[in-house]
Design goal:
The chain is α/β, with parallel strands linked by helices. Helices cover about 35% and strands about 15% of the residues. The chain contains eleven helices and 13 strands. The protein has a nine-stranded mixed β-sheet with strand order 5-6-4-3-2-1-11-12-13, with helices on both faces. A four-stranded antiparallel β-sheet has the order 7-8-10-9, covered by helices on one side. Helix 5 links the parallel strand 1 and strand 2. The N terminus is likely disordered. Bound molecules: magnesium ion. The site of magnesium ion has 7 residues, from loops. Removes the phosphate from trehalose 6-phosphate to produce free trehalose. Trehalose accumulation in plant may improve abiotic stress tolerance. This is Trehalose 6-phosphate phosphatase. Its cofactor is a divalent metal cation. It catalyses: alpha,alpha-trehalose 6-phosphate + H2O = alpha,alpha-trehalose + phosphate.
């Protein structure tokens, strides 16, 4: 629960509409055709009051405010010290409750290791806010060399995939490890292992055995491929319509578009929300989701990071096995889909990266990317010891 917000439902992702097919693709999807007319390409100007009311009443602004902790003060201070004390008490209570509900994965490491014994761990990692710190400019969200080295070691021992909201190419550029599998655009662009997943059966957007720009071979699955021209058009429109809003940054992730407002004055958040609402009005096959100080526009298909985890597990031949323990580490709302898949199937552990209490489907928590690095290092060390023990036992048996 976000204690600095009145938002009653902290899970902000918009639910997609129903009618999904076996493949998880909405049955009303048709090949892309441009809408009747493009949006105004002129610089952003304030829209008619009705539209603004729509944005305000829909709770967007509340959601935008609660999408990331404020940088400076958690509470208003000043003359009302009793109120501040009460808020501090409330915050402490929430932290204690959260610690009970979602204990630290570091403090619970023995418990996790005990459960993982004799199991094959499959590791899924978000990128921003998980492997790299959240920074003002998303282009500068670099992971440290130490983190890269740890992730490389993780991949030596466990099948490992990065599932990011960024484009697959961009996240590969940032991580730079060929040992991993990559899923970009919230799992809508997967270059997975060569094993086939039944979720891709007969899907027109599934390509067996392809080689990407990095020379890596794998099977490509892009369930929203027909949306690429539409997303490109939306990207250009949003760039044009937000260029008058200082600090706004629009990114094209190939299958979705992000509008960052981290560096935008709060008084201009409403125009940002309006620009996105205009897009949704014009393109009914797109939907909006939230991240940390970012609004995202993505295809209305029943596909998310949770589906991507299921897809990768099946491609790896690791689904529906009692001897497999998937672990997913992420910090954002889009990661909740993956946490839910693991929790509901009782299949593995979701680990939320957050320095504050949040409603989550994750089992454990870690405070920040530094703690993620410690946890991953501990897992590698534990695995080495376990493997060493197995080798020793086998030698004793042979002797
Ligand atoms: Mg993230």
């Amino acid at each position: 629960m976000d204690f600095e917000s009145n938002h009653s439902s902290p899970v902000l992702a918009d639910p997609a509409s129903t009618n999904s097919s076996r493949l998880g693709i909405y049955s009303n999807l048709l090949p892309y055709s441009p809408p009747g007319g493009s949006l105004s390409s002129s610089k952003y100007s304030r829209k008619k009051p009705g539209k603004l009311d729509e944005v305000c009443s829909s709770g967007w602004l509340d959601a935008m405010k609660s999408s990331s902790p404020p940088r400076k003060k958690l509470f208003k201070d000043g003359s009302d010290t009793a109120y501040s004390s009460w808020m501090v008490m409330l915050a402490l209570l929430l932290i204690i409750c959260h610690a009970f509900k979602h204990p630290s994965a570091l403090n619970s490491f023995e418990e996790i290791a005990k459960f993982a014994k004799n199991k094959k761990i499959a590791m899924f990692l978000d990128y921003d806010g998980t492997l790299s710190p959240i920074v003002d400019d998303p282009d500068n969200a670099f992971m440290s060399d130490d983190m890269r080295s740890v992730v490389k070691n993780v991949a030596k021992h466990f099948p490992t995939a990065i599932i990011s909201g960024r484009s697959r190419y961009k996240v590969y550029q940032l991580v730079g490890l060929t040992e991993l599998y990559y899923a970009g655009s919230h799992g809508m662009d997967i270059l997975g292992p060569v094993g086939k997943a039944s979720m891709s059966n007969d899907h027109p957007n599934y390509t067996e055995s392809t080689t990407d720009q990095q020379g890596k071979e794998g099977n490509l699955f892009q369930p929203a491929r027909e949306f690429v021209p539409m997303i490109d058009e939306v990207f250009r429109t949003l760039v044009e319509n937000t260029k008058g809003i200082e600090g706004a940054k629009v990114e094209n992730h190939k299958f979705c578009v992000s509008v960052h407002f981290r560096n935008v004055d709060e008084e201009n958040w409403q125009p940002i929300a309006q620009c996105v609402q205009d897009i949704l009005d014009k393109y009914p096959r797109l939907r909006r989701t939230h991240g940390r100080k970012v609004l995202e526009v993505r295809p209305m298909i029943d596909w998310n990071k949770g589906k991507a985890v299921e897809f990768l597990l099946e491609s790896l031949g690791l689904s529906n096995r009692d001897d497999v323990l998937p672990i997913y580490i992420g910090d954002d709302l889009s990661d909740e889909d993956a946490f839910k898949v693991l929790r509901e199937g009782n299949r593995g552990y979701g680990i939320l990266v957050s320095s504050r209490p949040k409603e989550t489907s994750a089992v454990y928590s870690l405070k920040d990317p530094k703690e993620v690095m410690k946890f991953l290092s501990s897992l590698v060390t534990w695995k080495k010891v376990e493997e060493g023990g197995c080798i020793l036992n086998n030698r004793r048996t042979i002797l």
